[in-house]
Amino acid sequence: MLVPAAVAVANGGGRSHDTSLRALGAQQGLRIGTAVDAAQLGSNKAYTGIVADQFSAVTAENAMKWDAVEPSQGVHNWKAADDLVKFAQQNGQAVRGHTLMWHNQTPGWLTTGVANGSITDAQLRDILHQHVTDEVTHFKGKVWQWDVVNEVFANSWETPQADGLNRDDFWVKHLGSGVIADVFRWAHQADPKALLMYNDYNITGEDGTNVKFQAVYDFVKNLRKQGVPIDGIGEQGHLDTQYGFDAQRYQADLQAYGDLGLKVAITEADVRTFVGNSTDQVPTDALAQFAQPYEFSELLKGCQLVSQCISFTAWGVYDGDSWIPGTFSGEGYGLLYDVNLQPKVAYSTLQQDLKLAAGGHHGPAGSGN
Ligand code: XIL
C-alpha cells in the first residue's frame, strides 16, 4: 500500500507534532469521536473547525434517529444525515450510526398509530423491519458502527423481566424480547460489513451496582451463542460528579464484555455537575472543576486499557450545545469545550492521557543518556 509520508506520520507512523485528540488517538489505534449537531455543522465556523481537527469519528446527535429520517410514513428525509456523512468522508472520519431501535424519538405517526390501534403489533413488526432495512441500506458502506438497539434493559432500581429487559420498553412490550435478535439480523442483512452494537447507560456499574451490567452481559452472551450478529457493546458514559465513579469496576466490566469476544466503544461520554446558570455553566462547587476532568479521564483510560475498545466519543463538542442543561435541572459543564468553544481542563487531561499512552516525552528507557 502506498502511503504518503506526511499521512503516515499524522496517523501514527512515527513521532508527530500533531497533538490533536484524533492524531494522538491514532497512535494507539483508537478513534476519538464526538456527537455532532446538524444545525451547527457548516454554519458555526469555530465549531466545524474543531470537529474536523480534533475528532476521527462522528455520531449524528439526532439526525439519524427515526423521527428525523422518516417524519411521515414512507417519506424519508436523509439530508442532515447525508451532509454529516459527506463531511466525515471529506475529513477522514468514521461514522457511528445512531440509532435504529429506541423507545425515544420515534415518529409521531408511529406512536399515534400504535396508541389508537390503527397499527397492530404484526404491522408494527413489519414497519420496524422496513425502517431498519431502509436506513442501513441507505448508509451501506458508509457507517462503521451502528447502535442497533438502544436502552432496552431495566435500570437497577426497576423490576426487570426475567431476561433483564425493561418490561415497559415500547418495543419489548409490543414485539417481545425476540425482536432484539431480529433487529441485529435485519441490520446485518442490509450491511454485512458494519459493526453492530448494543448501546446503553449504567451498564458498567456507574449507578453503584453491577445488576444492569450482569443482565446485559448474560443476554448478549446468549445472543452470541445463538449466532446473532452482534459485534459489540456501546457504553454511553453519561456521568455526574455528585455520584462518584468506580473506575476499577468500569474497566473490569468493559474487559468482561471484551472477553466475550465483543468490541467495546464509549459512545456518549459527558460528565455533568451543578452549575450557577446554564449560560456560563460555572460549577457551583469549586472541587467539581477537578472532579469533572478526573472522571472524563477515567472514562478514557478504562477504554485505553481494554484492547477491545475501538472508539471513545464525547456526547457533543461544547457546553453551549449540550443536552445536559435541558435534561438535568441545574446541571451543565459536561463536555471538553466551554460555552465559548474554548478547551477546558478536561480537554488537556484527555490529551495528556493520550500522549502518555503514545510513549510520553521520554522515549525508551536509557535514551536519556
Ligand atoms: C439526546 C440528544 O443529545 C438531544 O439533543 C435530544 O433532544 C434527546 O436525545 N442517550 C442517547 C442519545 O442514546 O440519543 C440521547 O441524545 C442522550 C441519551
Provide structural commentary.
By secondary structure, the chain is α/β, with parallel strands linked by helices. 40% of the residues lie in helices and 15% in strands. The protein has 14 helices and ten strands. The protein has helices spanning 5-13, 21-26, 45-54, 66-69, 79-90, 108-115, 121-138, 170-175, 179-190, 211-225, 247-259, 288-305, 324-327, 345-357; strands at 31-36, 57-60, 94-101, 145-150, 195-200, 232-235, 238-240, 263-274, 309-314, 331-332. Strands 1-2-3-4-5-6-8-9 form an eight-stranded parallel barrel, surrounded by five helices. Strand 1 (31-36), helix 3 (45-54) and strand 2 form a beta-alpha-beta unit. Helix 7 (121-138) packs parallel to helix 9 (179-190). It is globular and about 60 Å long. The chain starts with a helix and ends in a 12-residue tail after the last helix. The model is unreliable at 1-14 (pLDDT under 50). Bound molecules: (3S,4R)-3-hydroxy-2-oxopiperidin-4-yl beta-D-xylopyranoside. (3S,4R)-3-hydroxy-2-oxopiperidin-4-yl beta-D-xylopyranoside binds next to loops.
Question: What characteristics describe this protein?
Answer:
369 residues; alpha/beta; eight-stranded parallel beta barrel; 15% strand; binds (3S,4R)-3-hydroxy-2-oxopiperidin-4-yl beta-D-xylopyranoside
Helix content: 40-55%
**Low-pLDDT residue spans:** 1-14
Number of strands: 10
Quick one: overall form?
globular
Helical segment tally? 14
Structural class by secondary-structure content: alpha/beta
| Main sheet summary | 8 strands, parallel, barrel
On the 0-100 scale, what is the average pLDDT? Answer: 94
Strand order of the largest sheet: 1-2-3-4-5-6-8-9
Strand content: 15-25%
End-to-end C-alpha gap: 37 Å
Work out the radius of gyration: 21 Å
Small-molecule components bound: (3S,4R)-3-hydroxy-2-oxopiperidin-4-yl beta-D-xylopyranoside
- Element-level helix/strand string: HHEHEHHEHHEHHEHEEHEHEHEH
